[in-house]
Amino acid sequence: MFKFGFGQDVGIDLGTATVIVYVKGKGIVLREPSVVAVDNITGEVLAVGQEARRMLGRTPGNIVATRPLRDGVISDYTVTEKMLKHFINKVCGKFIFAPRIMICIPSQVTEVEKKAVIDAATQAGARKVYLIEEPIAAAIGAGIDISKPCGNMVVDIGGGTTDIAVISLGGSVVNTSLKVAGDKFDEYIVKYIKKKHNIMIGERTAEDLKVNIGCVYPKIQDTEMDIRGRDLVTGLPKTLTVHSSEMLEALIEPAMMIVDAVHSVLERTPPELSADISDKGIYMTGGGCLVDGLDKLLQEKTGINVMIAQDTVSCVALGTGKALDNLDVLEGKSRN
Q: Is the domain of 98 the same as that of 52?
């Protein structure tokens, strides 16, 4: 069924872990894991999103469930294009006019990586593609007025990358992007359980541990959770009880990498903007900042007040959506 009218304006937070789609006038219309299941022999896409995520680590030889984005950038171009096409069709239906799409990218991607995102979106059916840096989108989504000449610091911890930026007058003054975020936390949990208990667990189990009992700051009360994995000595399945104090041991190293990166950005920040940041505090966005105690740790190490944005997971997508309202201004500028 064709819908008449001009193509919609769509904002996409193309995350390593989750894809969130915002449609102008409707708000967030789709939130799915960025996982695709592909048949190795025919190259056919069998499942995308939630359905494909359930297949991770559980597929037969001819089917591969993969995440086509790694560390915030496209690692498998063909699969990313198919995934985007699937989501765009799901959201827009069949339009006579293709949609204009704005996509978020980490703050320090190369020109080649930018081109890959633009090409993938164009091939997936976009009329025109715009890019916006994640920290700027996150700041807009968190309700910060970035157009004023005063400094705001945003720490956006996603699945693949952590983007840290000091924003003033609508642009980032100092920024950095590091490949330590939610996925890296999961990796450290897998390594820790393997080293300490001689048990191999999968990505999904590690993520469950992180979400339920993970912490990077000592908890008042120690919590626990039962998990199942493969005993590396006997090769048989085994159940294990893990405590939050162990999660603290496992996660403190990657958490400190993020704290150090924030520290280095603060060191490079002009003094006037530093004064603004110490007044206003640091804003944290992205799903990765929900690890228990990360805000307390950052506050303790920097001595600056740390606030977690309201809808952390959707912040970047909401900011992209608000930036869509200025698309016509952008178009006018490019014509001039």
A: yes
